[in-house]
Amino acid sequence: MPDTDATLSASASVQDPVAAHMDEVLSFYDEAFHLTSASPALQETYEVGTLVDATLWHLYPELLAPVSKAAVESVIAYGVPRSVEVVDAATKSRRTLLVFRAMRGIGVLETSGRATRREIGSHGESERALLLHQATHDVLTGLPNRRQFSDDLQSILPTSGEKLALMQIDLDDFKPVNDTLGHGAGDAVLKMAAERIRGALRDGEVAYRLAGDEFAVIQRQSDQPADAEYLAEALIEAFSEPFTIDGISVFVGASIGIAIAPNDGNDIEQLMKAADIALYAAKKDGRGRAKTFSRSMLIVLEQREMLRRSLRTALQDKQFSIEYQPLVEPPFSIVGFEALVRWHHPLVGTIPPNVFIPMAEADGLMNEIGQWVLEEACRQAATWPSHFTVAVNLSPAEFLREGLTDRIAQAIDMAGLRADRLELEVTESVLLERTTNNLDTLNTLNVLGIQISLDDFGTFYSSLSYLKNFPFDTIKIDRYFIKDLESDEKSQTIVRSIIALAHGLGMRVTAEGVETIGQAVWLRKEGCDRLQGYFLGMPMPADAIGAYLRRSSAMATL
User: Organism's domain of life (predicted)?
Assistant: First the structure.
């Protein structure tokens, strides 16, 4: 229970912002039903200053009646406000109490006003109070909503001496809960998430549900950003345990962006932008963590936006090129090359694919870029020895676009390339949605004679049903399992098992990321069909392939 001095003194009675601005008989209680704050009207009516251990049941003993107590418990469980009519045992007067969810507990508003305890003949005042609460609070979680958040932030900013922390909170991996378990489970997770956020808060901290799985906290503490970072750590820790839905454990984490006023902004727009940028940095850094805004984050974001704008004209300005990395059959026989797209920005220089490809996918540009890579790679491969293949990666954005098979067929026809010389690499992630259509697309490509490779095997979901339902030509083992192959027995066991699995299904195996002779020798002994990596050949422009082939005979003694 809060200490006596801090709970019900005249100065402390307005600790809750709602209580401070309403001339109503209003009171707030923690989860143990101890009185935490009250309006002056309630203190005057009930003389609560004389009650050291004031509780909901001291002020309103009528709520202990089974029906009334059930209504209170319903508010706690579901967050939906309830009007409860009670009768004073001594005076026989009737009152209507609006019971609603509040921060870290509940609130009670006497909707008949404070002047008299008259018998209420109409529910109009109760309905007005209920509508007011519903307009400013989220029905599902009981937290103040975006409207209340904006009003509260507007009333605080700008601030001159006091430092204020704004925390933007996004739930990680929440969408799969809705997608796999249904919206009812999603709602249950949101309610439990709100409770975990409430449980981490202290005095001077208020949480809000803004929309969907987005929450916010306004914190008024003196030591910033240390106090905000301490709270953020507590919130992240609160989400470390799974949520249990109908006996199923689901893990939903939290990413948090922190901005401090007035340093990072002293109006709503500036402060929210800073918190959003910090949240973006937290998610990019791996999620499940908190980041405090810094100017360097803004610079990085501005650079990223500059790259995104430049990406729209990069193709027409011929800033893309393709490099080709050899595919080798042991002991050392070149069988083809993988086409790898490169972006050479005129000001920034070479932009890594892991930076610009997600941008292109998000902005709907990957189809155009991917088509150019496919056509250019097929055109180049047509000039190689007739037994060489060319491998081209298909992004999920390209794979899910209608007309894919027609575009691929057109590309090989235009280049004059045999269909069996084209190998398309898809990752397991592209098969997670629209499973039937995906398999139909793969089967159509297979009928055309095009080879299909399952890329990065073992790093995503690795559903063996895909291997059963579609006869891939090749499985590519991700470099993650190759990098410590010479010393790690677990990696050896996994790679050995993948090779056996693929061969048992009549598929070839390619190992990526081969960087040492020891890795190459081990893979050769275990029967790996093809190798790819820096040890065997770096990615090279098309005009360097001829010289590479002339030098490659020196490697044949591997």
Answer: Bacteria
Distances (CA, A) of 41 to 7, 37, 86, 97, 120: 16, 12, 19, 15, 19
437: tokens are 């259509």
pLDDT at position 526 is 96
* Interatomic CA distance for residues 452 and 467, integer angstroms: 12
* Type of residue numbered 122: S
Burial class (CB in 10 A: 0-12, 13-18, 19+), 121: exposed
Has residue 123 got a pLDDT over 70? no
Contact call for residues 106 and 99 (beta carbons, < 8 A):
yes
Q: Order of strands, edge to edge, in the sheet holding 253-261?
A: 205-211, 214-219, 164-172, 253-261, 290-292
Cα dihedral value 442, 443, 445, 451, nearest 10:
80
pLDDT at 269 exceeding the cut of 50? yes
Question: What is the model's pTM?
Answer: 0.57
User: How long, in residues, is the chain?
Assistant: 558
Rounded CA separation 348/350 (Å): 7
Q: Decide: helix, strand or coil at residue 243.
A: strand
CA angle 417, 421, 427 (to 5 degrees): 120
Tokens (6 digits) for 549: 């082939």
* Per-residue pLDDT at 433 exceeds 60: no
Strands 389-393 and 333-345: parallel
Determine the Cα–Cα distance for residues 204 and 468; give it in Å rounded to an integer.
Answer: 58
Here the tokens at position 67 are 């029906």
Q: Which residues pair with 166 in a beta bridge?
A: 218, 259
Structure tokens at 405: 């098979």
Whole-Å CA distances, 292 to 207, 360, 513, 534? 18, 28, 36, 39
Residue with tokens 């496919």: 374
Give the model's pLDDT for residue 539.
Answer: 95
- Rounded-to-integer distance, Cα 210 and Cα 218, Å: 12
Give which of 201, 229, 203 is closest to 217, Cα–Cα: 201
Residues 6+ apart with CB under 8 A from 208: 143, 144, 145, 146, 148, 149, 152, 215, 216, 217, 218
Lowest mean pLDDT of 92-101, 201-210, 318-327, name the range. Answer: 92-101
Is the distance from CB of 122 to CB of 136 less than 8 angstroms?
A: no
Q: 83 near 133, Cβ under 8 Å?
A: no
154 alpha-carbon distance from chain centroid: 28
Q: Cα separation of 177 and 168, whole Å? A: 21
- What's the mean pLDDT in 533-539? 92
User: From CA 396, how far away is CA 464, in angstroms rounded?
Assistant: 19
Residues 94/107, Cβ–Cβ less than 8 Å: no
- Here the tokens at position 178 are 């809705």
pLDDT digits (tens, 9 = 90+) for 473-492: 999 998 989 999 999 999 99
Q: Which of 289-303, 501-515, 531-545 has the lowest mean pLDDT?
A: 289-303
CB-CB contact of 386 with 420 (8 Å): no
Residue 52: closest CA among 28, 29, 35, 27 = 35
Strands (E) across 362-488 are located at 389-393, 422-427, 451-457, 474-477
